[in-house]
Every structure is written in C-alpha cells, then in structure tokens.
Amino acid sequence: MKKIISLVLSATLVMTALIGCGGANSDGEPQAEGVESKDIIVGVSMPTKSLQRWNQDGANMEVSLKAKGYKVDLQFAENEVETQVNQIENMITKGAKVLVVGSIDGGALSSVLEDAKAEGIKVIAYDRLIMNTDAVNYYATFDNFSVGVIQGEYIEEKLGLKDGAGPFNIEIATGPLDDNNVVYFYGGAMSILQPYIDNGQLVVKSGQTTREQCATPNWDEKEAQSRMDNIITANYTSDKLDAVLCSNDSVSLGVQSSLKSVGFGTADKPMPILTGQDANIANVKAIVAGDQSMSVFKDTRALSEKVVEMVDSIANQKEPEVNDTETYNNGTYVVPSYLLKPEFVDGSNYKSLLIDSGYYTEDQLK
C-alpha cells in the first residue's frame, strides 16, 4: 500500500511539473511549452490615423497578432505626445507584456518606457527609433538610409547628372526634427546630391539645404505647402524649378499643391521631378497623373509580419532575429535592429509592385 501511495504521489508531482512548464489552455488541457504566450497582451501604439500608412500598419499588425491568438491593444495618438504617453501608461496598467511603439517624438518616451522596463515589458520600436533609453529592446524598420539614396539616385538619373548635365534648380523638403528617421532619409539623399550641389550642377536658390532649414513639422502637408509657397514667391516667379526632394508622400502632396497654385503642371510649366515615400494611394494616383515622379515603396505588410515574428520570439523567451547591430545608436546604446529593403515605384512599375502584389486594387487607384 505504501508503494502504491508513493507511486501516485510521484505521478501527481510529475504532472504538476509538466503543467507548470507547459501551461494549460482555456479548456484546462496541457499545452506545449511557450504556447501560454498566446494569453499575452500586446500593446500597439501608433502615432496617428491622419496618415494612411499608420492606419495600414496598425491594422495589419492587429490582424496578424490576433490570428496567432494574442490579445491586442491598438491605440492611435493623433500626433499628441502626451496622448501617446498616456496610452502607453494604460497599456502597462492593463498588463501588456510586449509593446510595439511607433513613436511621435522619439526622445519623449524614455520615462514611460522606463516604467515598462521595470515591469519586465519588452519594447519594440516600430519604424521610428526611440531615443536615449535602454528600455527599448529591438527596432524594426526599413533601411532608412537607402530610402534617401533611392530618392537621390532617382533625381540623379532623371536629370542626367552623372553625364554632367546642368545646372538645375532643386529644393529640399524633409520631415520633423524629432523624427530620428529623417536623419537617415536626409543623409542618404544628400550622399548622392551634395556633390552635385558642391560642383554647381544643382542649385538650391533658397539657400535652404540643412535638415533644420528643410524640416516639415509632423510631416504636415499644409506646413510643407506653406513653406514651398514662400520659397516659390522668393525665388521662382520667373525661374524654372527642376526638382524637389520630398522625404515622404504627405510632404510631396503639400509641395504639389503649392506648385499647382502658381501654374505648375501645365504644358508650358511642367511639374518638376518630385520624390516621395510610402506609396500612399493619393500619391500613386499623382504618379499616374504625372504630378509626382516617384515614391519609395515600403511594403508594410512585410514589416508588420516581421514584428509579429519578433513578438512570437519574445513570448517564447527566444531572441528575435535581427540583421543589424551597428547602425542605430539611440544615444544610450546600439539597438538590435531588423532592416527591410525598400524600392522605388513610379509610372513604369506601379502595376507590378502595387496591384499585382495585392497591396492595392485597381479600383483604389482610379
């Protein structure tokens, strides 16, 4: 009898240990190790709904995470830093175990993310690097320097700069100073264009060439339009404007509105070469219409899927895959990063890249 009791107790202890290691599902059945992570809350904090791409990114990630069984708390902060801080605080309070953060101001979240770190919460910076804290664990983005290079090379090719053509007039419109990505967008583009500015093939009549001079607060379309209005009035009432380096699509739309208001976009006064980034629907329509030359396409479906893979790894106590451990120093340390490759889209390839791939339908671009 003592042997039987001993065997029963031993079996009970073994089962308890197994369940403790593997967890149980909602029906009380044992699960494989790591599957209990599917009860994890993932907080997804996006900057705003006012830009198409953030809506897409948030929706893509929410669908993918929920399909894997995660509980998702998706919030949009409408470009208000205080709102984003409050939303992240609420995610922490609700028990989120992973935070995916597309920051509004990469330098304004260090305090709230220190609170997250204290709770053992892992943080993935999404497409915008979070600065000056070791509370961000990983960074997922596109190769942002390459974004700028692609834009610069497009202008270089279309103007024939390698063949010595010029001089041409160019202006520059970047993004906000509090978005660390702009450092790379601007740096990549100027790595191509600055030599031509230096040798006189490209002329910036406004004299505004630094990132600070060319900034567009909050990537705001109206801000971009207003600044370009002033540049045109002061410098291009009679002179031709051959190109405008626009760091993203909302900036490009603002520049287009400004140009059209003074007669650009006609047979006598064609639009200059205009770049962009994100391949937003309005901008692809502008490309088809000839109002915008190109946009840098970043397939956010791929970025969202990569982040979901990272969340899965974290939930299963594994190291997420990264492919860059040298580039993105946030002022505290070099954040382990995964970089995806961007590519340009213009009138020659938009159908194959955007429609054939299922990113957009033909009806969306009509």
Automatic annotation (TrEMBL):
Keywords: Signal. Residues 1-26 form the signal peptide. Pfam families: Peripla_BP_4 (PF13407). GO terms for cellular component: outer membrane-bounded periplasmic space. It is found in: Cell envelope. Residues 42-318 form the Periplasmic binding protein domain. One of its GO terms (molecular function) is carbohydrate binding. This is ABC transporter substrate-binding protein.
